[in-house]
Design goal:
Number of helices: 3
Strand content: 15-25%
Radius of gyration: 32 Å
Distance between the termini: 105 Å
Strand order of the largest sheet: 1-2-3
Number of strands: 3
Length: 153
């Protein structure tokens, strides 16, 4: 007489040998999963803030390089002081400088640009500085950032 063995897991469970997951195991698993997801969300937020800072810095470098190119193209006016300006003052300079400063102010938060040309016709150095305010994370203060590029004219 052939008998088929009982299928595994079928039939009554002896006392003391419970199968499956207990409620505490499920709760611990959910707790660990929640902390993992919280860490992932925090990492994503930090990555977004870093991307925003990198974009602002790249934009500031582009603005400064643009002004340096204008200075190289218009060397005579640059040496005459037509582009000299302070980051503290709002005015000064010709229409090209005013337009550049307006673009910097419009595209960067609290953006300011200044230009300094030193030297004479044989050896002159131009320095362009762009300042802006980085917005802080939630609960933190914003901070002032700047880049400065220099070239010989």
């Amino acid at each position: 007489m052939n008998t088929m063995p009982d299928a595994v897991g079928v039939g009554p469970v002896p006392a003391g040998r419970a199968r499956g997951f207990s409620l505490i195991e499920v709760l611990v698993t959910l707790f660990i999963l929640a902390f993992g997801l919280l860490g992932l969300a925090t990492t994503q937020i930090h990555a977004l803030h870093a991307q925003r800072r990198a974009e602002a810095e790249a934009l500031a470098v582009r603005h400064a390089a643009n002004m340096l190119e204008r200075l190289r193209l218009n060397r005579r006016d640059a040496l005459a002081g037509a582009f000299d300006s302070s980051c503290d003052s709002g005015g000064g300079g010709g229409s090209g400088l005013r337009a550049w400063r307006r673009v910097v102010a419009d595209t960067l938060p609290d953006g300011k640009g200044c230009v300094t040309v030193t030297g004479d016709t044989t050896l002159a150095t131009a320095r362009v500085e762009v300042q802006w305010r980085e917005r802080g994370d939630a609960g933190s203060e914003s901070r002032q950032s700047h880049i400065s590029l220099s070239t010989r004219l």
